[in-house]
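Try this one yourself first.
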């Protein structure tokens, strides 16, 4: 019996224990908190996969090592790994990451969302869609897509 799922039996990984910060957050010369890799991971780890009842962390779509933060340039890059090379929901996952970070980060941060090199059959196209302001804006005006994104983000906002 076909399930209709793109990846009917994904590998599920154990969740990392949340780290408690032992020292206060670093403050820069402008009295702003510096955002680090762990903080970004904490924002996105609980996003629900659009196809499975697991988080992006549990499916190893995102991990702390896939995040780059440049505090001086106020940039964040998240590189995610779809569970299958032909995942039709890769763009949706990327939009979920972008929306969550848009709501979590100060507005002066530039966010770059990418598919990990060699992990998706249409990697260049997905990357272009996820980092084009006009395409992202148009996608976020689609009520059906926004319903799906909000559903994926519900648990991420409740943590």
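Now uncover the answer:
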């Amino acid at each position: 019996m076909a399930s209709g799922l793109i990846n009917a039996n994904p590998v599920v990984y154990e969740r990392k224990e949340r780290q408690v910060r032992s020292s206060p957050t670093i403050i820069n010369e402008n009295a702003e908190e510096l955002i680090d890799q762990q903080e970004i991971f904490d924002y996105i780890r609980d996003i629900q996969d659009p196809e499975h009842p697991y988080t992006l962390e549990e499916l190893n779509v995102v991990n702390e090592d896939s995040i780059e933060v440049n505090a001086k340039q106020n940039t964040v890059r998240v590189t995610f790994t779809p569970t299958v090379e032909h995942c039709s929901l890769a763009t949706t996952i990327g939009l979920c990451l972008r929306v969550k970070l848009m709501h979590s980060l100060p507005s002066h941060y530039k966010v770059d969302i990418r598919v990990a090199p060699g992990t998706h059959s249409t990697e260049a196209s997905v990357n272009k869609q996820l980092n084009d302001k006009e395409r992202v804006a148009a996608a976020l005006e689609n009520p059906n897509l926004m319903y799906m994104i909000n559903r994926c983000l519900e648990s991420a906002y409740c943590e």
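Discussion: The domain at 37-158 is CATH 3.30.300.130 (GMP Synthetase; Chain A, domain 3). The longest strand covers residues 75-80.
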